[in-house]
Sequence to fold (337 residues):
Amino acid sequence: DLEQDIAGLLRKYNKNVILTVNKVDNPQRLIQANEFYGMGFQNVCFISAISGSGTGELLEEIIKFIDAPAAPSTDGLPRLAILGQPNVGKSSLVNMLVGEERNIVTDIAGTTRDSLHSHYKLFQKEFIIIDTAGIRKKAKVNEDLEFYSVIRAVKSLDEADVCILMIDAQTSVEKQDLAILSMAEKKRKGVVLAINKWDLVKKETNTMKQMEEDIRRKVAPFKDVPVVFTSVKEKQRVFKVVELALQVHDNRKRVVDEKELNEKMLKSIEQFPHPSVRGQFLQIKKITQVPASSPTFIFEVNFPNDVRDSYRQFLDNKLRAHFNFTGVPLNIFFRKK
Fold:
């Protein structure tokens, strides 16, 4: 029959063959499928494409026959994830930076399905850049493939150090952009806002300044974040985006000298003390930065559970004023002294 003819043809070429039997989706069919061993192939896999059963074993068999060159180590390199809504120019940015068409670029939203990693090493800069599928509202994700692509995009944020959030300058910051920003902040990732398609915006004297003020108002309280207006198509301020992202990466790794930290922060606290609570004054005597993936500070205070959120924000602002933590969410904890 046809299968035997194809098998005979494959044997002539002396190639590695994996016989894959589909629709094996129950124990009865698995028993029946054993007859395919009679075709004489060493590697036989039973799968069910509709349920995914057996596909993992098939991939493992395929990998055995792939001689991939050893990839250079990328441990310790900054990892920049490009996130945003569909069709804001994420793939165009990656293609421009790496100098090749790694990603398909069209005007159709949702073209990028997988998260693609590119190793950039030019002009004395080296980092990993991750392009992701566009993240849109759940109600608008109506394809299974796109649904899983969005999940992979969200997971890409977990392995990134800095998120470059690309926003369409024609629509400015939308609700979904704020949701992505909030997700990056909760995961304690560095953030750069890249406002793309700036060439398509009708400009007046203070258009850029007014739009930046509007953006910072919308992203409050996380306002200490770099904002750069760019046009990937016109190659306008593209490398500025990268420079800011690498600076944010350095900010995220910053360790402050403990003596300098206490001198500057305790002086600010002395000038603006916490309001009294139940007739008791809150006293902060020492601040310590502890090792963590993002800057983390512990304030020793006599009543840690009574510190108000507004004063926590005050301390956050002062840390940023004294030390450069632009684009980086800060962790602030209070401990009884």
Observations:
- Residues 79-252 form a domain with the Rossmann fold fold (CATH 3.40.50.300).
